[in-house]
């Protein structure tokens, strides 16, 4: 097998990242206090149009901390899409709650509001609206369902940095939102995350739980059991450098998406990620699906690309089929045909700032050859 020469993702660190990290190191403020943390939290809250943003050590922790702050407990149920990364469901289990899986909307691949209503029980406490592959979920409808039923909405915006819904940025569309800054995300510090909210009391609870449970008004007094979920000033320095180039980074990715769309859209047997008219999608990883009438399957196309040193990533395996969750899912008789179909046929193609148009030409030519073979 040929060595990978075009990865599916890699970070864009071509700005002032090294300068800011060096400054953080030279200042000796390398732990969970420092000017870069303050700068990042202020700027990110502004980008989300929220009153607060709290940096944490990764996106999974952000979800866990959100559920702790909302006092979700053992025996509670949280409605989540099955078509998402496993962290969304794992975080429910961390607090003893049960993830209840529902299908996605074929028109946007995000959690289907009409399926949410059917899944609500007396034990339901909340809904996690995942903005999948950079596309915002139908938040107005989801929030309306939540309000009628007394539920809390968490936005899982791990893949949707700076996406917008009806002109509003993600991050401020639910009671709170969680983000990831893992190495393959649009903005990254290697490992990192954030929670955004405009609820002052909730923000204070999140900060307290994040910092070992210490009373903010009395040092080294701990009124609650807390966690060490903090981000370092060094990691925040990376994020500050990333965010100040956000227009440049997003612009490059939009160009990459445009190149892919221009070349792949005419290919019979290939379908692209749908997009609603009232959203701005974050160009994270480029998505395509392979129709069953194509000459080659999703996995066969991925193998053809791999033989040329080009890496890809299949869509997530449906969570309701995975060992930690499938027994409870079977008891509920979960029926998720859209999720099952998309996850079987979906493929992510290489997406990063310095991939070239020539690289994309080659990728798309291989895809064309694979699906048109007779």
Automatic annotation (TrEMBL):
Coiled coil: none annotated. The active site is at residue 185. It is an enzyme of class 2 (transferase). Its EC number is 2.6.1.102. GO terms for biological process: polysaccharide biosynthetic process. It holds the Pfam family DegT_DnrJ_EryC1. Transmembrane segments: none annotated. InterPro entries: DegT/StrS_aminotransferase (IPR000653), PyrdxlP-dep_Trfase (IPR015424), PyrdxlP-dep_Trfase_major (IPR015421), PyrdxlP-dep_Trfase_small (IPR015422). It comes from the Bacteria. GO terms for molecular function: GDP-4-dehydro-6-deoxy-D-mannose-4-aminotransferase activity; pyridoxal phosphate binding. Belongs to the DegT/DnrJ/EryC1 family. This is GDP-perosamine synthase. It comes from Crateriforma conspicua.
């Amino acid at each position: 097998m040929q060595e990978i020469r075009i990865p599916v993702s890699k970070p864009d660190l071509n700005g002032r990242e090294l300068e800011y990290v060096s400054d953080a190191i030279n200042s000796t403020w390398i732990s969970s206090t420092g000017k870069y943390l303050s700068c990042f939290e202020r700027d990110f809250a502004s980008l989300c149009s929220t009153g607060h943003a709290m940096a944490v050590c990764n996106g999974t922790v952000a979800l866990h901390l959100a559920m702790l702050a909302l006092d979700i407990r053992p025996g509670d149920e949280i409605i989540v899409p099955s078509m998402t990364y496993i962290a969304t469901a794992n975080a429910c289990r961390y607090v003893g709650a049960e993830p209840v899986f529902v299908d996605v909307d074929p028109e946007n691949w995000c959690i289907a509001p009409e399926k949410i209503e059917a899944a609500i029980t007396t034990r339901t406490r909340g809904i996690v609206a995942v903005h999948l592959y950079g596309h915002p979920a139908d938040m107005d409808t989801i929030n309306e369902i939540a309000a009628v039923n007394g539920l809390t909405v968490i936005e899982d915006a791990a893949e949707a940095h700076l996406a917008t819904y009806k002109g509003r940025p993600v991050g401020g569309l639910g009671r709170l939102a969680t983000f990831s800054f893992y190495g393959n995300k649009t903005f990254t510090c290697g490992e990192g995350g954030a929670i955004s909210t405009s609820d002052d009391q909730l923000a204070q609870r999140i900060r307290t739980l994040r910092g070992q449970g210490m009373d903010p008004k009395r040092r080294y007094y701990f009124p609650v059991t807390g966690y060490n979920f903090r981000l370092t000033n060094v990691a925040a320095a990376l994020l500050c450098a990333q965010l100040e180039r956000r227009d440049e980074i997003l612009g490059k990715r939009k160009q990459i998406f445009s190149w892919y769309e221009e070349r792949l859209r005419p290919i019979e047997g290939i379908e692209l990620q749908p997009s609603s008219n009232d959203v701005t999608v974050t160009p994270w990883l480029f998505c395509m699906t392979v129709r069953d009438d194509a000459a080659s399957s999703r996995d066969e196309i991925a193998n053809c690309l791999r033989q040329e040193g080009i890496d890809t990533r299949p869509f997530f395996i449906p969570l309701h089929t995975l060992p930690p969750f499938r027994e409870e899912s079977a008891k509920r008789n979960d029926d998720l045909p859209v999720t099952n179909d998309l996850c079987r046929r979906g493929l992510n193609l290489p997406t990063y700032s310095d991939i070239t148009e020539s690289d994309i030409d080659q990728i798309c030519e291989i895809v064309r050859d694979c699906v048109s073979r007779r």
